[in-house]
Design brief:
The chain contains eleven helices and 33 strands. It is 15% helix and 39% strand. It has a 17-stranded mixed sheet that branches. Strands 26, 27, 28, 29, 30, 31, 32 and 33 form an eight-stranded antiparallel sheet that branches. It has 660 residues and is of the alpha+beta class.
């Protein structure tokens, strides 16, 4: 990455600018802007997050926000209510209070003497979600958004449910947020006495969100609120949507490019859950330059040519050897002037010959080669060689390809299936099989078969009765070379991606048709991007180096299979304000291949903050199990000042299990 130190305008930074909400709650913002902005007002760019600007997102903030400021913007990074250095309490993700606060910040910014009245909003993940949701509320000053790694559907395409199946990440993310939000504000900003009061109040009211999310197992009004797919026409701001093929949120870019009536463009690269100027696998792109083109057009009314950009730009990844991590992915950029594209044709492939049947009865441990839902750590989190899972699935191998094919879009599989239980899950994986048998995951999809017609109104399966179901796999862009073959692997378990059915299931397939979206192979890049740039990186010293470990163990006596993950994110000290922060995440996922009710998940997070003899530490623990009727979840927070335990709280809840 090229580090830019000289900008058209001199930058001034405000590390703790207070923004008072209508109810009196003070939000803390870190703001960068041109030093002469009062004399020559500029547009504002808002990023509104719960992830702590002082130490949480500071690495990417330092690369990004000063860059915008130096190019003539007031860049505002706000700690969300109840997090970081802001006052108040947070009770859920994407609450009406959160979205209203963002609207109020936008109105506040537009009214400042240093602002020209135009505001943009951007963010990745949580920030990518809420900038779309805020845009749907149509605050007057909001003219454009840049949304990365986000979703249009909170139920079916977030970390909660996928195809009506309960994602393990639903519990994992609740555990993460319990830890993230357990930390206090910085005493240097909140005050030597005030910080403790804010911290203890925050801890006393800290939610553990897994039980709430488990109480909404169908796509009800809880999930519809904030799902912009309910009314795409509500978004009037210009939208630039960006994502990565190694991220969990692969589908949003296509949905937005196809449905938004306002100006919209989409870019999908080979990246994990990161901003694309420092993401991996490479190649990275000059995201900040692309963002400036977007902001300049919609916030400054400068003709930057963005309206003539292709509607959809995607990186078609070449076939590679399966590995848990790829520092780079060879491939090429393709461009479509409209999306959906008339250049993409569909090919149907019958997987089961007429009159034939296939029995699917997978061990509960099938899925361990699937990797993380959204890889995050630049470590061994990608899908590995699929052969271990293929061996536990029913596989339909196609003939060896005589010429390369480029799959661009969302593959689908239509099945005719019967079950011996009233509830069953089905998982389908599309794989690239190398000549030596190595199997690389291209895309996958899962479906709770009781949700085959509706996520809002499921219908029980009648044991032995054949039904039709359509499984839509995730969007992808992948080139399968000549000499390789395609494989469709079908299982009725996918652990630990989804929580298992309450009983072992036997599925009988009587028909299955794969539909592939095929694009003429590109011979080279059809579009190019500038090389990555960024502002001066965050200045730190390493206190403890980061390290990630991932182990799968089988107990030969009990038969239990356990996936253990330790992500030590290390500890660093800020060289400007001297705050040191560190965190460690530990996860354990266990299951017996023959018993879905043996499934369990455990997490343990440690967070530390320290400076000049002052230190705090929080420990959070969570566990999830289930029986036929219920989910059982529990959690605990321990908070320490120095070595003294100053707060402890337990959560225990039993939630009825919707069998549909």
């Amino acid at each position: 990455m090229k580090i830019v130190t000289e900008f058209p305008r001199k930058i001034v930074e405000f590390p703790d600018m207070g923004i008072i909400m209508p109810d009196g709650c003070r939000l803390s913002a870190r703001v960068w802007m041109p030093a002469d902005a009062v004399d020559d007002p500029v547009p504002a760019i808002l990023e509104h997050l719960p992830y702590r600007k002082r130490d949480g997102t500071i690495y990417r903030d330092q690369l990004t926000h000063p860059y915008f400021a130096g190019n003539g913007y007031a860049s505002i990074r706000v700690d969300m209510r109840g997090n970081g250095d802001s006052e108040g309490l947070m009770d859920d993700e994407y609450s009406e209070q959160e979205l209203q606060d963002a609207c109020d910040v936008i109105a506040w910014a537009a009214a400042q003497p240093w602002c020209n009245g135009n505001v943009g909003m951007m963010g990745i993940s949580w920030g990518g979600f809420n900038c779309l949701q805020v845009a749907a509320k149509q605050p007057a000053a909001l003219k454009a958004v840049i949304s990365l790694c986000s979703t249009v559907d909170r139920y079916a395409d977030d970390i909660h449910y996928k195809g009506g199946c309960l994602l393990i990440e639903n519990f994992g993310w609740a555990s993460t947020m319990l830890s993230y939000s357990s930390r206090p504000p910085d005493p240097l900003l909140a005050g030597d006495n005030r910080w403790r009061e804010l911290w203890l109040t925050r801890l006393e009211n800290q939610p553990f969100l897994a039980p709430l999310w488990l109480k909404h197992q169908h796509r009800d009004a809880y999930w519809k609120r904030g799902s912009i797919c309910e009314d795409y026409s509500a978004i009037h701001a210009a939208v630039l949507s960006i994502g990565g093929w190694h991220d969990g949120y692969r589908n949003t870019i296509s949905h937005l490019a196809a449905n938004i009536e306002a100006p919209v463009k989409g870019i999908v690269g080979p990246w994990i859950h990161k901003y694309p100027h420092y993401a991996a696998p490479e190649p990275r792109i000059g995201f900040l330059q692309e963002a400036l083109r977007w902001w300049d057009r919609w916030l400054k009314d400068i003709d930057t040519g963005v309206e003539a950009d292709p509607a959809y730009r995607a990186y078609v990844m070449d076939s590679v050897r399966p590995a848990r991590w790829h520092p780079e992915r060879p491939g090429r950029w393709v461009a479509e002037s409209e999306w959906p594209s008339p250049n993409i044709r569909t090919q149907e492939i019958e997987l089961i010959a007429e009159g034939k049947h296939a029995i699917v009865a997978s061990p509960q441990s099938c899925g361990l080669a699937g990797g993380e839902y959204f890889p995050f750590t630049f470590g061994p989190e990608l899908p590995g060689d699929q052969r271990p899972d293929d061996a536990l699935s029913v596989c339909f191998d196609q003939p060896v390809l005589t010429e390369a094919v480029d799959i661009v879009g969302a593959p689908e599989v239509l099945v005719r299936v019967s079950s011996d239980r009233c509830q069953a899950n089905i998982a389908l994986r599309l794989c690239d099989v190398h000549p030596d048998g190595a199997s690389e995951l291209i895309s996958y999809g899962v479906l709770n078969l009781t949700h085959r017609n509706s996520h809002e109104f499921p219908e029980a399966l009648v044991p032995g009765e054949t039904v039709s179901a359509r499984v839509v796999l995730d969007q992808c862009a992948y080139s399968v070379p000549a000499g390789h073959r395609l494989r469709v692997a079908i299982s009725n378990s996918y652990w630990p991606m989804i929580w298992p059915s309450p009983e072992p299931v036997r599925l009988e397939l009587s028909a299955a048709t794969l539909t592939l979206p095929l694009r003429p192979p590109a011979t080279g890049d059809e579009v190019t991007f500038p090389a990555p740039e960024g502002a001066t990186p965050w200045a730190t010293e390493t206190v403890r180096a980061a390290n990630s470990e991932r182990h799968v163990d089988r107990d030969e006596k009990t038969g239990m299979i356990t996936l253990s993950i330790v992500d030590d994110f290390g500890e660093v000290r800020d060289l400007q304000h001297s705050l040191a922060n560190g965190n460690i995440a530990r996860e354990t996922w266990a299951i017996h291949p023959d018993n879905p009710l043996s499934a369990s998940g455990k997490t343990h997070w440690t967070q530390t903050l320290s400076r000049n003899g002052w230190s705090v530490r929080t420990e959070t623990f969570a566990e999830m199990r289930s029986d036929v009727q219920s989910f059982m979840v529990s959690a605990r927070i321990e908070a320490y000042e120095g070595e003294k335990l100053v707060f402890e709280r337990n959560f225990v809840e039993k939630i009825p299990r919707a069998l549909l």
